[in-house]
């Protein structure tokens, strides 16, 4: 665990690796509604199943690759489906088909309503730029590029490790540290000189497992205690706290 001292962050750390959903942008809200609609439709096919809730999202889905989230939640309800393939139609009754259905629901809402970054997150990104700190986005989402573009943040992050790159390069998803380690590698910064910023338990575990200089948890609902238990060195409620500290 990192030892806090009075040395300015920009002198101790040379890069910041951000998760996207729930850290830079409130896309978690769109994801949560899309998951809820998809899962409750699926649960209606099975007897004696209570509705999917936000607690299920945080316990089984948050921060994971899409198909892993489908598989893990259904397993929690004792439901087993065929895996299928990523090319399955959204109407196909498989793990991949349900994941694709959720993605269609998400992209429809994003296209219709757009997305704005959290003001505090935008401010810290600006401060980091001023201090010459390298930055990357590391996200399980295959929609990360579209979200960054919609939020007006695409130009701020020359390095993006998303679900598409992870699939192409065979990188295991969070809570494995591989995607964050790949982000650090692409920035050319050793892991011990990087800060990982996460709001999900699985993402915090990934940062803790990777030997990074600091794992910064952002409490967007999962709970500060849970983030610390997962390995966060520090927890804030909004990244404006970090911007204030470095301003």
Which class best fits the helix and strand makeup? Answer: alpha/beta
The largest beta-sheet arranges its strands as 3-2-1-4-5-6
Content of β-strand: 5-15%
Query: What's the gyration radius in Å?
Result: 18 Å
Number of helices, counting only DSSP H or I runs of 4 residues or more: 12
- The residue-averaged pLDDT reads 93
CATH homology superfamily of the largest domain: HAD superfamily/HAD-like
Distance between the termini: 25 Å
CATH architecture of the largest domain: 3-Layer(aba) Sandwich
Shape: globular
Query: Quick one: CATH class of the largest domain?
Result: Alpha Beta
Order of helices and strands: HEHHHHHEHEHHEHEHEH
Query: Can you tell me the CATH topology of the largest domain?
Result: Rossmann fold
Instruction: Give a short account of the largest sheet.
Output: 6 strands, parallel
Keywords: Carbohydrate metabolism, Hydrolase, Isomerase, Magnesium, Metal-binding, Phosphoprotein
Cofactor: Mg(2+)
Enzyme class: isomerase
Catalytic activity: beta-D-glucose 1-phosphate = beta-D-glucose 6-phosphate
Task: Furnish the topology, listing elements before pairings.
Elements: H1 9-12, E1 15-18, H2 27-43, H3 54-61, H4 66-76, H5 95-113, H6 119-130, E2 134-138, H7 144-150, E3 159-161, H8 163-169, H9 178-187, E4 194-198, H10 201-209, E5 214-218, H11 224-230, E6 234-236, H12 240-246
Parallel strand pairs: 1-2, 1-4, 2-3, 4-5, 5-6
Helix pairs in contact: 2-5, 3-4, 4-5, 6-12
């Amino acid at each position: 665990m990192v030892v806090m001292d009075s040395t300015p962050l920009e002198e101790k750390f040379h890069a910041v690796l951000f998760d996207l959903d729930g850290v830079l942008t409130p896309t978690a809200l769109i994801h949560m509604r899309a998951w809820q609609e998809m899962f409750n439709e699926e649960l209606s096919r099975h007897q004696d199943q209570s509705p999917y809730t936000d607690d299920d999202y945080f316990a089984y889905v948050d921060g994971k690759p899409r198909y892993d989230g489908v598989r893990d939640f259904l397993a929690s309800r004792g439901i087993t489906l065929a895996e299928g393939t990523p090319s399955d139609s959204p109407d196909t009754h498989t793990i991949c088909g349900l994941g694709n259905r959720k993605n269609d629901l998400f992209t429809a809402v994003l296209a219709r309503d757009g997305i704005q970054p959290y003001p505090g997150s935008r401010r810290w990104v600006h401060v980091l730029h001023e201090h010459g700190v390298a930055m990357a986005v590391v996200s399980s989402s295959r929609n990360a590029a579209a979200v960054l573009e919609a939020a007006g943040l695409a130009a701020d992050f020359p390095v993006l490790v998303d679900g598409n790159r992870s699939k192409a390069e065979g990188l295991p998803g969070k809570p494995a540290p591989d995607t964050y380690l790949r982000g650090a590698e692409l920035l050319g910064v050793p892991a011990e000189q990087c800060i990982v910023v996460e709001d999900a338990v699985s993402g915090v575990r990934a940062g803790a497992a990777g030997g990074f200089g600091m794992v910064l948890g952002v409490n967007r609902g999962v709970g500060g205690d849970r983030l610390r238990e997962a390995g966060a060195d520090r927890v804030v409620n909004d990244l404006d706290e970090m911007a204030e500290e470095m301003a």
